[in-house]
Amino acid sequence: MSDPDKVLATFVVNGEPHQCAFAPHKTLLEVLREELDLCGTKHGCELGECGACTVQVDDVPVLSCLYLALDAVGKQVRTVEGLANGPTLHPLQDAFADLGAAQCGYCTPGVLMTAEALLRDNRCPSRDEVKQCLAGNLCRCTGYLKIFEAVELAAARMRGEDKQPSKESIYGS
Amino acid sequence: MGLDEQKTAPSVVRADAPWRHDAKKDELRVIGKPIRKIDARSKVAGLTKFADDLKLPRMLHMKLLRSTAAHAVIKHIDVSKAKSMPGVKGVLTGQDMPIPFGILPVSQDEHALCLDTVRFVGDPVVAIAAMEEEQAWDACRAVEVEYQTLQTIGSSHEAAATDEPRLHDYGVRGNIHRLENLEFGDLKDGFARADHIREDTVFFEGNTHLPMEQHATLAHFDKDGKLTIWSSTQTPHYLHRALARVLHPLPAHHIRVIACPNGGGFGGKSDPFNHEIAAAKMSMLTGRPVKIALTREEVFWCHRGRHPVLMRSKMGVTKTGRITALDFESYLDGGAYGSYGTASTFYTGALQTVTYAVENYHFRGVRFFTCKAPCGPKRGHGTVQPRFAIEVQLDKVACDLGLDPAEMRKQNLAPRESLTANFLRIGSMGLGACIDKVVEGSGWKARRGKQERTKDGRIRGLGLACSSYLSGAGLPIYWNGLPHSGVQLKLDRSGLVTVFCGSTDIGQGSDSVLSWIVGEVLGVDPLGIRVVTSDTDLTPVDLGSYSSRVTVMTGNAAMQAAERARDIVARGAAEHLQVPVNRLVFADARVFDSENPDKGISFQDAVIAAEARCGTIGTVGSYTPPKTAAKFRGGGVGPSPSYSYSACVVEVEVDPDTGIYRVPKVWMAHDIGRALNAAVAMGQIEGSVYMGLGEAMMEEMAYRDRSHKGHRVFVHKIPSLLEYKSPSTMEMPEVVTYVVEDPDKNGPFGAKEVGQGPLLPIMPAVANAVFDAVGVRVDENPISFEKVFAALLAKKEGKDARFGPSLGKDGVPQVDFGDSLKVKTPWQGGDGTAWNEPKRDKKAAK
Prior knowledge:
The structure holds two protein chains of two kinds.
Chain A: E1 7-13, E2 16-22, H1 28-35, E3 54-57, E4 60-63, E5 76-78, H2 91-99, H3 108-121, H4 127-133, H5 145-158, H6 167-171
Parallel strand pairs in A: 1-5
Antiparallel strand pairs in A: 1-2, 3-4, 3-5
Chain B: H1 3-7, H2 40-44, E1 60-66, E2 72-78, H3 80-83, E3 88-93, E4 117-118, E5 124-130, H4 133-141, E6 144-149, H5 156-161, E7 176-184, H6 187-192, E8 196-204, E9 216-221, E10 227-231, H7 236-246, E11 255-259, H8 274-286, E12 290-293, H9 296-302, E13 309-317, E14 323-333, H10 341-350, H11 352-355, E15 361-368, H12 384-401, H13 405-411, E16 418-419, E17 425-426, H14 431-442, H15 444-447, E18 459-470, E19 485-491, E20 497-501, H16 510-522, E21 530-533, H17 550-577, E22 584-587, E23 590-593, E24 596-602, H18 603-614, E25 617-623, E26 643-654, E27 661-671, H19 678-697, E28 703-708, E29 711-716, E30 734-740, H20 762-774, E31 777-778, E32 780-781, H21 785-796, E33 802-803, E34 821-823, H22 842-845
Parallel strand pairs in B: 1-12, 7-34, 8-32, 10-11, 14-15, 20-21, 27-30, 31-33
Antiparallel strand pairs in B: 1-5, 2-4, 2-6, 3-5, 7-15, 8-13, 9-10, 9-12, 13-14, 16-17, 18-26, 19-20, 19-25, 22-23, 23-24, 26-27, 28-29
């Protein structure tokens, strides 16, 4: 179907240029999922309420459901697919897997992209800082606790510490 | 070794402990260890394919036009304009799918698209498929529907008072869907022996699951005349049955249902849904793949969440706090359809006896049809509301008698290995240990009732509550004598073990459970096992991910299949190694002689030896729960292979002027039988605490009662993720979790459920903690700040320091419950039947 109203644009996503045509009112979320097949980014509300669609644009976490795709042209977009280094998971991903911080896994990509930006700015965030940072990412499975612990575990590992999850967080008190 | 000898070789399966509940921790290499979930890597990489992540060539997008009337007859639908809109490829109305369906055989009351009547705002009326999603929306707007409105039934009270018009032409009478009246033991005697009797009326507002993933379905009716459905469903088997029913004459074996990993379910994806069936029909109509992805608002209309339940409870106790009798009534606002409502009604009465020993028990329950989104099963299905009522009442009783609420509960514990008044069979029972843990951890004895002030002037309080929950329903949803879970194993010469099972991973880790159990039995790395699940073409039936049944039921089936595979492989290895088969050990991907561990072969070589000996290796396992002891009508809801137990203490800090409170800390102990994976079990407990706090503090499925063109409609007040308040990271308290392990002989390695039980005690514990802090009772969940404030105000004005439903006769709807079915308790010599039950005609029972 040809559509004269579509625009042709080139995005840089996860360091790779992608050219595609889309209606100018399309959000970054829609273009990522529907045009570029990058379905790791999820939709939970499409109203900017849940954080599931969080990606990074020029290193800043944004809600891709409220972000016009056209506004991302010429910027660096990073999605969950760009987090791992080849087959090697990002330390955040490893920590999330170790602790079971991803249950259903639907909010996980958005949480990871938010947390990754935090750890770039703050190598040693306090529990309160982690909570503040993730306050816009809803999760219905975990009760957030394993997510907090995983972010802190990843932060420690990224600082070069040989850290393992605490006994209480795995076996209980 | 000769063949005869092989045949008689002892199996590792023991008749007295087939599921190895008594295995010692140090004997286990996989079970109990915090290994990663089998799908952890794909989840953190964003590679898990949820239903809406799928697309097929030539795929159409479908949208539903939903009713704007709350109760009306459809006079006319004009789709002519919509049909000619750009991109439109298919239009369906109710007449295209006239066969009704529903999750329970007794309530086949839904249509994929409303046939002639709409029963709530949001009921689907027309389905339209188009090339683009937006085109389908536009076409929906071009449809004209003429409604003849009917009287709207807005609440349980209204339903009880309104016989006509009826929402459905089945049910008990008027707008009463179900009515139950069951009496166990001698209530009169029980109350006569009581030193103290309390009567309370409490209300539990409805709330919804709010999974992060909206429901989505992709249907493809291919050129071979077979239908494939990928869907976000917790129950592919039941969806399969509903599709076969509605799409008749398409045979069931031409329908394949694949449940995608669910982005959260919590019970909200357990019904077969209208959109799933409509997408299938649309694909059959257009010959193209059809996808529907619901919007967040539509997920609120799908609902099937927690029933609003009004409850009246009369409890008799001795001076020392022993319960002598309980008379419990529940009034459920069911919404527009049956859904699981029959089971929900029974569940508001069934488990009262499983937590505490109730010697004499009377339960009356009624479910009404109302013009609102249908209620159904949400985490804790039907048992959550009565748990709130009972645990708050116990707190009041303890207060009345000057007893410690924790000690009083311990006096009343249901005994392990016993039959309850309503003939539920309790196995392992670790509630006493759970109470001890949270009492000690929270400093309960020293800190309760102290009304300590925080620095910002708030008052601290502690509240305690307990609960029990089932590890799977003892009976299937439709009457049959078949296994509830089946597992097939394939072992091939690469050393790969493949597990096939119909269960569905909704984030709780059920795929991983299969791999841990098979990995333990066969001594292989669970992360190396291939797990194929929830595909009705490929995997044996499992009834679904509901009622906390999966770990126990698929776990036992997987264990049986794995034990059988182990036997086959062991015989091959024994022959190869010339070692008696009963001396072989399977561990670390090796099979070796227990008396000479160096003498062994790799698991792969053992499989090869076995395949050479007896051909291709495949085994099956299946599980059917033990027969229930209850034989009275209604006794089918409540039985379970085992029951989990939880106890918690919640700490609150309440502002005595405003009623605003926060929850800084929760202590939660859960008797899980045995944790198959410590870290994953912790995640389930913490998630339950979180969801419980959401229900306690803020979540409610609230409606606006509005007039639309002179017709009264109920529209959801807040159908969005932001406005339907749920806890964010900022509200989540510190949680101290205790995993109590009291292995049950009916569970794999002794495991019981964990996904639902720990949610139950949170809400009453919050209510009790608020009372401990500021001396007011909020007898209505959620315990929102406004309600605490209202109760504080009442207290200040010298009125009853309480917020809740009226305690008078008008507090509950007026319903004639008729005569009760009377059942003698086990200690009265009862046999599980009702002595006054009319003989049931076998045909009628079917």
